[in-house]
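Thread title: Can someone regenerate the structure for this chain?

I was given the following input by a collaborator and told the matching structure tokens would be attached. They weren't. Posting the sequence so someone can regenerate them.
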Amino acid sequence: MSSGSTPAPFRSLLQTEHTFADRHVGPDAAQVQRMLDVIGVATLEELATAAVPAAILDPHGALAALPPAATETQALAELQALAARNTVTTSMIGLGYHDTLTPRVILRNVLESPAWYTGYTPYQPEISQGRLEALLNFQTMVSDLTGMDLANSSMLDESTAAAEAMTLLRRAGKSRSNRFVVDSDALPQTLAVLATRAEPLDIELVHADLAVDGLPDGEFFGVLAQLPGASGRVTDHTALIAEAHERGALVAVAADLLSLTLLTPPGEQGADAVLGTSQRFGVPMGYGGPHAGYLAVRTATARQLPGRLVGLSVDADGDPALRLALQTREQHIRRDKATSNICTAQVLLAVVAAMYASYHGADGLRTIAARVHRHAAVLAAGLRSGGVEVVHDAFFDTVLARVPGRAGAVVTAAHDAGISLRLADADHVGIACDEASTPEHLRTVLAAFGIGTDLDETVPDALPPAQARTSEFLTAPAFTAHRSETSMLRYLRALSDKDLALDRTMIPLGSCTMKLNATAEMEPITWPEFGGLHPFAPIADAAGMQQVITDLERWLVEITGYAAVSLQPNAGSQGEYAGLLAIRGYHRSRGDAHRDVCLIPSSAHGTNAASAVMAGMRVVVVACDAQGNVDLDDLRAKIADNAGALAAIMVTYPSTHGVYEHEIGQLCQLVHEAGGQVYVDGANLNALVGLARPGRFGADVSHLNLHKTFCIPHGGGGPGVGPIGVGAHLAPFLPGHPFAPGLGGDVPSTGGAVSGAPWGSASILPISWAYVRMMGADGLRRATTTAVATANYVARRLDEHFPVLYTGDRGMVAHECILDLRPMTKATGVTVDDVAKRLADYGFHAPTMSFPVAGTLMVEPTESEDLGEVDQFIDAMIAIKGEIDRVAAGEWPVEDNPLRGAPHTARSVIGEWDHPYTREEAAYPGAGIGGLDTRAKVWPSVRRIDGVHGDRNLVCSCPPISAYSS
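Best answer:
Regenerated them for you:
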């Protein structure tokens, strides 16, 4: 061996290493080959050729424009460099976004904990009691602070909550008017979103300075007031609300939750709905999101309330148990008659906000609010003493200063000193104080105005005594029992232990793609360089974040084959809506405003129909054939029936039935020939990335679920990001925003803002950035083909036990398969619910139940689950089939067997026992089956829950303290 040469045994170590894709993709090469052997193909590429229609299949290497895969270390170093390019000033801009101090126990044990951020929407409540309790706390917090009867478990943001409140008031009221009065002192981003939402629904917005001029003349169905106003002004709305009611209108108030610890809540002033955001309750600004908005209503309109609602019911033992109530899956039931297209929430952020309130309690929140207000009052006094006019005498946290002709100079001086203020106009500067404000910040602001920096802390408050809050709030034990960090830590652990999330088991949910959310992807979201950015900060201050946005848009364009991407929509439902608005704007720009028919296959996600109605379109349903494909003959007939009015078709690809439809190209051609546009729902994009691009095979627009395909975690039912990709002809109609003039469309008929922040939930975009950066083109294609292989492996192994309902032309499924339990149910009485609940006893989350076909289970294993976990799930399903066979044979009665009794709690199996099956069969099923024998036991915390009882006896907040004492 010559001097300096590398020994042969070690030379290969310098040339090979595990890639990130090796860590993200669960099955190794040997496991993949085992699956391929069962499927009957030799390689993943052969599988892709067999499953994906040749007409749309991209060759290997088609995504060559993506950067080569980076290691975790490299990607994080690049993100750190981008983060360092951001200038995080002390933000005093306000407008609904405020700095906040997240308690570290909550930051580490909720926001950074996979037990919380990898959970799914709690459709299986027996294994979701922890997050359901946290959401019930959120609802209680909101209803207490607003003075309303009940609140939902969060909205996407404040602006979209205002839009939902507007349509709720229209549905709930008796007025036939189409006019909606909006306070001119409402948040400007809310005004923009309201304008977008109102136009397709033929709602006329009437702007009025409610505090000065009162209600306008004429009829109107509703009113939106702001408390405090965008200018900071605090107004008593009691008389205005009473007058609106006398005139037949309902009233919504957008309210700052922290201010309501000191001010009379809108519910006590007579409001019919109250909305806002919980962002300042411990959730970083994050350049706009994600944050948990809220919407609270009276009991009379509870069944009109959009979004998620957690309710209290009882389980099979009569014990209290929580579940989603009322409109749990309303879009899939009511479709175009749904009250909203929202099918998710901001659960993870709602949990943070609820725990913030729990940790501080009523007294702590009052103290924080009082400190915020004192800073504002002292600042106002300092400005006045320096000769600066303060516009409003009554305010909570925001001071509006009038400095004729020099507002820009003041804002610049403050920014040079490290503080961002709001440039309201050439004559006015807005300064918002928050939890992080200090006396030194006040002195710096005063200096920017060119006046003395002495602070007089003896000045009086600026809140009208007549508006002081006198009612109690947050009296339930959840808000009084956890003042110490030890207590809060144990509470959070106790709640998370009641749940099944991805940190404990696979979640094989069809259409929801519950894949790995890698730690390296998650790490940057809590970096202060990203979290500390205000969404309306000067664009130069967000240079690093803007580069993340630009990179991700460019990569998504390459992956989808579209010409442009907007990242503004902050949920898949909002992406659907934004995409349809782009189509609407395109037709109207061409003089085709009469094109308003949207064709939707009968198998489609229910949100599609609801989104179409919101975009001002009429829904026409297209049938599916016996194989689950869109029936082209019926499509031709529906096109002919609506030839001149056709606006679009919304089609999910691969189909909602889990197959690659070979006629997708023909479908696109038929619609285009009739003058329509093709919307491809991106819910199933995990079966396309690296294999086929919607923008290349005929689609005009798609929404992309970053919380599915691109690894943003579901968070127990949110956050999400639902950007849209569009063809070049639709790019001018992408969402715009009043605080980002260069964003979105460049024509008057552009769709307008669909979210409160210009780039939506920007702080979680680094997750998807890191995923694409670390996977590279080859890794992304490998992930897709492995997902398809795993789904086909599950389908082949389970087909003899639970027939697979739909397959493609070559007997293949895409990334998911539908197991048909209907013949079994008919023969034995065992239902899909029984199977789903029994899986909890085996330690698994259930697949998607009864969607898109009632009485079925839709399974999507994803690429992240290794073969051992997949085989254990298959073994559990086969074992359950064995239990069903025993029911069929008469060994166990239909009404008393392990499936009907599932899930079994620890208490239930040690108590009195009079069942025909043993305690062991109840609690430890699958005995003697290899992998299942070694699986960690999961004990559900409640028995099967009575949903009907919960809906008939609606309780959606924590019981009062008297209930505990009794």
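Confidence is low (pLDDT under 50) at residues 961-966.
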